[in-house]
């Protein structure tokens, strides 16, 4: 075997023949006449390629899906068409991305309840317990909302979906959420909040008709701003986390697609949304879990014991804001990728206008759960968190009729009731 890898020793007779037949170079011999070495290099190349793929960070939460590989049940198109059929005069057919997520589930149900056609899309990633996402899916199934299990980065699937269903609106809620997790898995934020958003906008601008888009931005875009309450007119160029930076990037990307392709786009800056069927990665949710388990909870404070506060906003209020944004959205002006006129571009704060300190949140939970929390107060680590949020909602009130009406204590009461029922062994629906 080894002799095959060596170049042949050229005798003088060999040199003679080289006059008639051009003598291959040493390098050429190595490549052309040594298949074993070639195989070895090919094997090594494939091995490193595989290694690179396996070591690359997973997409949001860990599930790896590449383009056009989503395996869907054979009847998915029929199910999507049925689910998309409106039963009201509004004639709305809405694609809800992130439909198995917290806000997505609530919005999809509200739309279905009023007779809109609704199709959900969700990748069911394991950023937090997938069992909760499946339970939300069951709720939607019961109401006749079909969720396609796929990633918003699957361009081929989106193109197909927009062909078979003519969506009037897209309610885009799929995202990699969470402020602090961005330090652990930065790539997942780029994957979902930047790449995924662009993939969705590409499919939307190519669709005929183009849908109107309403999507979830975040209060975190106000970052380190100190002027309160936060207004849509304020500059937002000091994000404190990569999460905030990707949401801010989304707002700029939205501007571009509106400008070039005539897509009607409305961004909603949500302020720490909480409530039943919420997100287990959020403080109110895991504080509840830890208080019940008698586990210590960490309460952050700023420098010099500065209070950390949030403008906690109850889910039902946010859902009303989402529906109002859809109802007031003007049509996109383009079609088939071409702009035909100026289109609507809007941004609204959906907050509660009354920030509550995190220590107060904890005392409300203690009262509702009838358990004293084991608290440890510590200085906020530099993890992307900001000290406080406070929404000015006058624009949303004026243009959307948005009027939040649930204070934190009332909202947490509903959350705790749901939590105890959901985790109380029966795991039955709290709706
Ligand atoms: O409004 C928003 O834009 C954002 O609201 C939340 O982010 P956040 O407000 O940081 O909500 P939590 O993670 O639930 O934290 C709430 C408060 O509890 C504090 N906290 C959190 C965790 C902890 O262990 N201790 C603690 O005191 C945080 O500093 C914060 O002030 C969501 O997680 C984001 O996805 C969303 O976009």
TrEMBL record:
Arranged from A to Z, the UniProt key words for this protein are: Isomerase, Membrane, NAD, Transmembrane, Transmembrane helix
Describe its membrane topology.
Multi-pass membrane protein
As its record notes, the protein acts as a catalyst of: UDP-alpha-D-glucuronate = UDP-alpha-D-galacturonate
Q: Which GO terms describe its molecular function?
A: UDP-glucuronate 4-epimerase activity
One Pfam match, given by its short name, reads Epimerase
Record carries keyword Transmembrane helix: yes
List, for all copies, the residue spans of the domain called NAD-dependent epimerase/dehydratase: 94-331
| Cellular component GO terms held in the UniProt record | Golgi cisterna membrane
Which InterPro entries does the UniProt record give?
A: Epimerase_deHydtase (IPR001509), NAD(P)-bd_dom_sf (IPR036291)
**What's the main place this protein lives?**
Golgi
Q: What is this protein called?
A: UDP-glucuronate 4-epimerase
């Amino acid at each position: 075997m080894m002799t095959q890898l060596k170049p042949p020793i050229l005798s003088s007779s060999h040199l003679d023949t080289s006059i008639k037949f051009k003598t291959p170079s040493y390098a050429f011999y190595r490549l052309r006449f040594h298949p074993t070495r070639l195989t070895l290099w090919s094997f090594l190349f494939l091995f490193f390629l595989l290694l690179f793929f396996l070591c690359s960070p997973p997409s949001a939460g860990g599930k790896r899906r590449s383009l056009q590989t989503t395996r869907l049940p054979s009847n998915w198109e029929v199910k999507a068409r049925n689910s998309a059929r409106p039963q009201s005069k509004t004639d709305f057919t809405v694609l809800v991305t992130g439909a198995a997520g917290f806000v997505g589930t609530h919005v999809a149900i509200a739309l279905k309840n009023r007779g809109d056609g609704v199709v959900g899309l969700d990748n069911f990633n394991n950023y937090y317990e997938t069992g909760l996402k499946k339970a939300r899916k069951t709720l939607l199934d019961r109401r006749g909302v079909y969720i396609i299990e796929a990633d918003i980065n699957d361009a081929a699937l989106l193109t197909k979906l927009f062909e078979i269903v003519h969506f009037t609106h897209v309610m885009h809620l799929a995202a990699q959420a969470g402020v602090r997790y961005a330090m652990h898995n930065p790539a997942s934020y780029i994957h979902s909040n930047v790449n995924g958003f662009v993939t969705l906008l590409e499919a939307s601008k190519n669709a005929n008709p183009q849908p109107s888009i309403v999507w979830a931005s975040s209060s975190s875009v106000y970052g380190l701003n100190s002027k309160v309450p936060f207004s849509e007119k304020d500059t937002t160029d000091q994000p404190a986390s990569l999460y905030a930076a990707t949401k801010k990037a989304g707002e700029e990307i939205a501007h571009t697609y509106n400008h070039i392709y005539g897509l009607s786009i409305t961004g909603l800056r949500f302020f720490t949304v909480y409530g039943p069927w919420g997100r287990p990665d959020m403080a109110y949710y895991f504080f509840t879990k830890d208080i019940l388990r008698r586990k210590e909870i960490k309460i952050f404070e700023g420098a010099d014991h500065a209070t950390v506060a949030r403008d906690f906003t109850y889910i039902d209020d946010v859902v009303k804001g989402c529906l109002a944004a859809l109802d007031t959205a003007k049509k996109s002006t383009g079609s088939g990728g071409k702009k035909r006129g100026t289109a609507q571009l809007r941004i609204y704060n959906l907050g509660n206008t009354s920030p509550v300190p995190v220590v107060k949140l904890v005392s409300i939970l203690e009262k509702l759960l009838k358990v004293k929390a084991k608290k440890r107060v510590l200085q906020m680590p530099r993890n992307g968190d900001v000290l406080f949020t406070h929404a000015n909602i006058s624009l949303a009130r004026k243009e959307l009729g948005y009027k939040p009406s649930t204070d934190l204590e009332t909202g947490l009461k509903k959350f705790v009731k749901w939590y105890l029922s959901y985790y109380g062994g029966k795991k039955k629906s709290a709706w």
